[in-house]
Write a structure and sequence with these properties.
alpha/beta; Rossmann fold; seven-stranded parallel sheet; 45% helix; SDR family oxidoreductase; oxidoreductase; NAD(P)-bd_dom_sf; SDR_fam
């Protein structure tokens, strides 16, 4: 399989670090011209892609990205909605404010909805395109004391993705979802650090507690960002041209369902 993306224009939101950076680099190696977004620019020497600064948890952020991208390239062929994070405080329902819930949905659901709405007219006009929404295994395995708003937002993203695939399939556009499990990223390390501080335990103990909460990992380790990116690269390519409307778990066998 060639996984060739030559002459394709790809957008990766949240593309400066972690899974997003790995995806951007993978698409670039496959021949795509890659545009990345984040709230802050990557450090010098850490980015080979066209960067657009934007806060995608706001309506203006999506408009900034779409206007800038279309002005520079005139079209987009691949959209990877990767921007997202679990940012709410731990502790369950009593610790969560309306603001916490709203922020999780703005960042983890509405950022993708707005980017897609802004850029889909150009895809529809060219009768081709691929949208891959990066969700999370947490959507199917919510942890009451850690991920409830995040899980709910990602579950909504899954439903949105499935519905959108039905609308856009006849227009030549594929929509897919990729749901990573526990991945070794800077955000995951920050999450574990915050968890350790809140529980007054060491980071090693916090990491062990997290693994115990989500269940045993059959493969015995966290995923590396590149292992998620490799699947995304395949799904974005013509080799996957008959795939749409499906959610792919990259969880090392974690999910206890058939």
């Amino acid at each position: 399989m060639s996984y060739s993306l030559n002459e394709k224009i790809a957008l990766v939101t949240g593309g400066t670090k972690g899974i997003g950076k790995a995806i951007a680099d993978t698409l670039h190696r496959a021949g795509a011209t890659v545009v990345i977004t984040a709230r802050t620019a990557p450090k010098d020497g850490e980015n080979d892609h066209y960067f657009i600064a934007a806060d995608l948890s706001t309506p203006d952020g999506a408009l900034t990205v779409s206007a800038n991208l279309l002005e520079k390239y005139g079209r987009v062929d691949i959209i990877i909605n990767n921007a997202g994070a679990n940012t709410s405080p731990n502790g369950g329902y009593s610790t969560l404010s309306d603001e916490d819930w709203n922020h999780e949905f703005q960042l983890n659901l509405m950022s993708a909805v707005r980017i897609n709405k802004a850029l889909l007219p150009s895809m529809v006009a060219q009768k081709s395109g691929v949208i891959i929404n990066i969700s999370s295994g947490a959507a199917m395995l919510p942890l009451w004391d850690i991920t409830i708003p995040y899980s709910a937002a990602k579950a909504a993203l899954n439903a949105y993705s499935k519905g959108l695939s039905g609308e856009l399939g006849p227009k030549g556009i594929r929509v897919l979802t990729v749901s990573p499990g526990v991945v070794r990223t800077p955000l995951m390390e920050e999450f574990i650090d915050n968890m350790a501080e809140a529980m007054n335990i060491s980071t090693d103990e916090a990491a062990k507690t997290l693994v115990e909460k989500v269940g045993n990992l059959p493969l015995g380790r966290m995923a590396e960002p590149e292992e998620v990116a490799n699947l995304v690269g395949f799904l974005a390519s013509d080799e996957a041209r008959y795939l749409t409307g499906t959610n792919y778990l990259v969880d090392g066998g974690l999910m206890p369902v058939v």
